[in-house]
């Protein structure tokens, strides 16, 4: 009898412990859902970059413009299907499901064009640079976005952002290793590219991509809530498809058709990984603070290093590691500072609201009536 009671108590304790563990796991996932989405998005973006790099080496190689057309074409089709299905089954219709609201179509077009320029430059750079170098250079975005916001939206460009841009520039130089500073040996990369300055040009392509991404952020902020987020993705997708196809025609590039199942799978992977990464990043940023979100984005560097070692058996040079560390450190400082400023602004707004409510309450008091009641 005693043994049965002990067994019953032990089973009850085990079940309760299991339930507590499950509750803790659910609580952890709930608290960090945004960060987990951002981390998974970085895995998809790194996988997309890996597929782009592999496709650049197939025979015949797939051009950057074709990759842009394939990826954004798939993204555009999936986004358009989402809008149409949403409008069929939901009472909250998305107006102007194809072109977007009339008053912001110019901004939507601008968003699509700068996005096209950004992604095209990025795919070109992946032919000549390591994944880790490209990922590190993309973290120049917070600094450059601050400058673009000051230039076009008249937003404040804080001193910390200015100093960070100088340090980030040093990081870019260490990664690019231009010949006029490091000599011809510093400009060489792992494969024979037939030109000494090709690495510097590839780094310039990434910087163009970052500038394009910063302008995309500026135009998106200018659009604001006047258009549905899917309108922004659609403008980006269809502009990329149209301009990419036109550029291929102008340059006389042929659309290379897949010649094997592996090739086809890689092309589909570029579009699918890009779309999933974009959706997860958007959902994660809605749930997470800027500072924590930026830390999650840095996982892209980790994934890039793992992919380089596993698929290409390459290890980044020490100067690239130092340069990447400088860029990531300054990006973290800028992101944390922006998050701190937003928190302070929110607290000030709440304080002002309370003070305004108190003033209105005192102003509404009828002091004459109060005096009569006292007497």
From TrEMBL:
Xref: PANTHER family: ACYL-MALONYL CONDENSING ENZYME-RELATED, SOLUTE CARRIER FAMILY 35 MEMBER G1
Organism: Wallemia mellicola (strain ATCC MYA-4683 / CBS 633.66) (Wallemia sebi (CBS 633.66))
Localization annotation: Membrane
RNA-binding listed as a keyword: no
InterPro entries: EamA_dom, EmrE-like
Pfam families: EamA
Transmembrane segments: 33-56, 68-85, 106-124, 136-153, 165-184, 196-218, 230-251, 263-283, 295-312, 318-336
GO annotations of cellular component type: membrane
Main subcellular location of this protein, as a coarse class: membrane
Region (Disordered): 339-360
Membrane topology: Multi-pass membrane protein
Keyword Transmembrane listed: yes
Keyword line: Membrane, Transmembrane, Transmembrane helix
Superkingdom to which the source organism belongs: Eukaryota
Protein name as it appears in the record: EamA domain-containing protein
Bias kind Basic and acidic residues: ranges: 341-360
Domain EamA: residue ranges: 33-176, 201-334
């Amino acid at each position: 009898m005693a043994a049965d009671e002990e067994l019953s108590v032990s089973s009850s304790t085990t079940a309760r412990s299991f339930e507590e563990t499950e509750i803790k796991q659910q609580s952890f996932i709930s608290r960090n859902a945004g960060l987990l989405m951002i981390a998974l998005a970085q895995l998809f973006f790194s996988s997309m970059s890996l597929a782009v790099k592999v496709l650049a080496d197939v025979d015949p190689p797939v051009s950057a413009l074709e990759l842009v057309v394939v990826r954004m074409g798939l993204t555009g089709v999936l986004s358009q299907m989402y809008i149409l299905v949403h409008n069929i089954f939901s009472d909250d219709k998305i107006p102007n499901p194809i072109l977007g609201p009339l008053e912001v179509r110019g901004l939507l077009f601008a968003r699509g064009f700068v996005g096209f320029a950004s992604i095209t430059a990025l795919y070109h750079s992946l032919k000549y640079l390591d994944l880790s170098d490209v990922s590190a250079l993309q973290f120049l975005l917070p600094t450059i976005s601050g400058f673009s916001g000051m230039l076009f939206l008249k937003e404040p460009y804080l001193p910390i952002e200015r100093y960070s841009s100088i340090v980030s520039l040093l990081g870019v130089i260490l990664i690019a290793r231009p010949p006029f500073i490091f000599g011809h040996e510093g400009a060489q990369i792992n494969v024979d590219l037939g030109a000494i300055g090709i690495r510097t040009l590839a780094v310039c392509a990434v910087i163009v991509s970052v500038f394009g991404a910063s302008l995309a952020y500026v135009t998106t902020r200018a659009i604001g809530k006047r258009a549905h987020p899917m309108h922004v993705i659609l403008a980006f997708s269809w502009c990329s498809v149209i301009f990419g196809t036109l550029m291929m025609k102008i340059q006389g590039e042929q659309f290379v058709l897949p010649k094997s199942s592996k090739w086809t799978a890689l092309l589909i992977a570029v579009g699918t990984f890009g779309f999933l990464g974009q959706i997860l990043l958007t959902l994660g940023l809605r749930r997470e603070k800027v500072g924590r979100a930026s830390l999650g984005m840095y996982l892209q560097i980790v994934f890039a290093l793992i992919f380089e070692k596993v698929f290409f058996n390459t290890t980044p040079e020490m100067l690239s590691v130092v340069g990447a560390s400088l860029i990531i450190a300054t990006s973290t400082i800028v992101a944390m500072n922006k998050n701190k400023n937003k928190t302070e602004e929110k607290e000030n707004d709440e304080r002002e609201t309370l003070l305004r409510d108190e003033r209105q309450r005192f102003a509404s008091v009828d002091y004459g009536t109060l005096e009569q009641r006292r007497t």
